[in-house]
Write the structure tokens for this entry.
Amino acid sequence: MIQGAIVGLGRWGRSLVEASRGHERLKIVRAVEPDLTVAQNFCDQHRLALTDDLNAVLADPAIDAILLATPHSLHPAQSTGRSSFRQSSKRTSRRPSAHV
């Protein structure tokens, strides 16, 4: 089972969490969101550990994959925030996500 984290809990992030429920190979267990107050209820309902610290999630050895549900303009900074991110075990497959 792939243990994942979602970054961004706007409309799209919440949709991804809902879509992953019951998935046989992916379980989203953590969420990163700067507005903790707004996201807390959703995270409680979906049993997600909530933080506003992306680096903490990147450093978490229990997280196998990170899903970015943030504006595209933020993706380069988020994916290169740690030099080892692209080479780490967080990247479990080169296949499109539909095959995961």
In short: The beta strands are 2-7, 26-32, 49-51, 65-68. Residues 82-100 have pLDDT under 50 and may be disordered.
